[in-house]
Task: inverse folding
């Protein structure tokens, strides 16, 4: 489980096809040294398995394979050398939940419509992000609810049924890949898992489903 609080931005060093599998190498100066082979790490909101940790003479990088499902459903299919990605390690049990419950299971991609400074004349300013949400995710988006955008835990400030607007504070803008995003870019979206489970329970309420949802969320 993740919380959507980005710990570091990394840089894609290479994207290759190895025996028919998409294989990426990411430079992560801070987090790579904390990884062990087989560990999970969220890359722009996608939970991946870390491989080839810190190879000899290259201590600041790790590698990962992308499943076909990952390539099909997320924006990682568009990765290229130099792409900046958001990185987060799993949240240890007992750690305060600073963001919201993020699984790293991306529901789909949204198209960035705009990212504008609230006060263009100020060096430090909030930003206003607007994104088009795919139809399949819309039932799980609500005003003032949580949503993960490229792995970042954010709050939906406005919702018109198809477009979500989010306020971005200066810290988030400066310490995530949002600072390099432009209109038209595709961003990974993960709906609030609690809202998704609540919707399922409304459709088919049962003690067994309720228990399964509680277990899935660590209760």
Result:
């Amino acid at each position: 489980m993740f919380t959507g609080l980005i710990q570091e931005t990394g840089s894609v060093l290479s994207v290759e096809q190895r025996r028919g599998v998409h294989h990426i190498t990411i430079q992560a100066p801070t987090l790579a040294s904390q990884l062990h082979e087989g560990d999970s790490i969220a890359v722009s909101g996608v939970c991946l398995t870390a491989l080839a940790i810190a190879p000899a003479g290259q201590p600041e990088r790790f590698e990962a394979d992308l499943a076909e499902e990952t390539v099909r459903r997320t924006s990682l299919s568009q990765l290229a050398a130099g792409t900046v990605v958001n990185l987060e390690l799993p949240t240890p049990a007992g750690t305060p939940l600073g963001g919201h419950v993020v699984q790293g299971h991306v529901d789909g991609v949204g198209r960035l419509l705009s990212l504008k400074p609230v006060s263009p004349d100020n060096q430090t300013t909030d930003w206003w992000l607007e994104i088009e949400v795919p139809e399949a995710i819309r039932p799980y988006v609500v005003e003032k609810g949580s949503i993960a955008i490229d792995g970042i835990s954010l709050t939906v400030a406005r919702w018109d049924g198809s477009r979500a607007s989010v306020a971005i504070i200066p810290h988030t803008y400066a310490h995530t890949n949002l600072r390099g995003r432009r209109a038209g870019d595709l961003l990974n979206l993960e709906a609030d898992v609690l809202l998704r489970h609540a919707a399922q329970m409304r459709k088919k309420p049962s003690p067994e489903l309720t228990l399964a949802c509680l277990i899935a969320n660590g209760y």
